[in-house]
Amino acid sequence: MTRIIGIVSGKGGVGKSTVAVNLALALKKFKKSVTLVDCNLSTPHLSYYLGATDYIGTINDVLKDKLDIQSALYNYNGIRYLPASVKFEDLIGVELTKFKKHLSKLEKSTDFIILDASPGLGKEALFVMDASREILFVTTPFVPMIGDVIRCKEVLKQFDEKKMSILLNMVTYGTHELKKEVVEELTGLPVLGEIPHDNNVMQSLVMRYPLLEYKPNSLASISFMRVASLLTEKDYEIPMKVKWHKWFTTIKNILLPNEIRMSNKAEDVKRELLSNF
Ligand SMILES: Nc1ncnc2c1ncn2[C@@H]1O[C@H](COP(=O)(O)OP(=O)(O)OP(=O)(O)O)[C@@H](O)[C@H]1O
Ligand SMILES: [Mg+2]
Known about the structure:
This protein is an alpha/beta fold. The chain has one domain (3-274): Rossmann fold, CATH 3.40.50. Helix content is 42%, strand content 16%. It is built from 13 helices and eight strands. The protein has helices at 16-29, 46-50, 59-63, 69-72, 99-104, 123-131, 143-155, 180-187, 199-207, 211-214, 219-232, 240-255, 266-274, and strands spanning 3-8, 34-38, 74-76, 79-82, 112-116, 134-139, 163-171, 191-196. The chain has an eight-stranded mixed beta sheet, sandwiched between helices. Helix 1 (16-29) packs across helix 11 (219-232). It is globular. Bound molecules: adenosine-5'-triphosphate (ATP) and magnesium ion. Adenosine-5'-triphosphate (ATP) binds at residues 9, 12-18, 40, 43, 45, 119, 169-170, 195, 197-198, 201-202, 205, 220.
């Protein structure tokens, strides 16, 4: 069965599109066929992130029944890609409720479908949650964003049961950040991986190349490969430099005298979370 993974988050700007693009490319490196769909209709970014310009059709055309989903797919370096239109007027008349039906036409022809969602819990995010079989919450390791994950998890109860996991992004291993284990305890969800904060990510965006192509040996690229290996259950040896980076940065941050120290006791964080509700 095709694995349909929704890349979602409560807060905007935490790295969903970055994850969607690089995870799709990493899965392809593990010999999987992948379809990537820009489901952020009001503020689409994927074409920019991929540097893709000469595409055939858009998800807007598909949702308006102007174009069949299979004919709208564009081949981007071995992955199939469905962009969203950047023209504001193309939002008029799109029928989000038809998405699941259109997507079912791709079922037999692809191993993975990666859906890049809009942030939050509005209609645009909900149609992705509904269409997905698995949800990957992208979040940064801070209390309010983890609160958002818990809220999203509540909202997901209205749909069929889905496999859910978390990807921590822009991690600096600072003492002000929540640790993976605490995030797991607070949300009741497994953390699939940690993507370090890596300046190469922004540079790749400016260069209009996905990070995995621009800097395949960067810390973040290697971390995306690790996540893809877990999803495909394939072996992947994490290079020592990534392990060293984590250990070295963690120890350096502990030793720095002026660092803000976040309590990583789940009950303290829970109290802080509750004070916001
Ligand atoms: N691991 C990382 N290290 C450094 N910068 C990152 C990392 N991940 C993402 N970024 C940067 O953060 C910014 C936001 O990323 P991105 O657009 O992927 O977030 P998003 O969740 O898709 O945003 P939106 O909610 O608006 O769709 C971008 O400038 C991106 O380059
Ligand atoms: Mg995005």
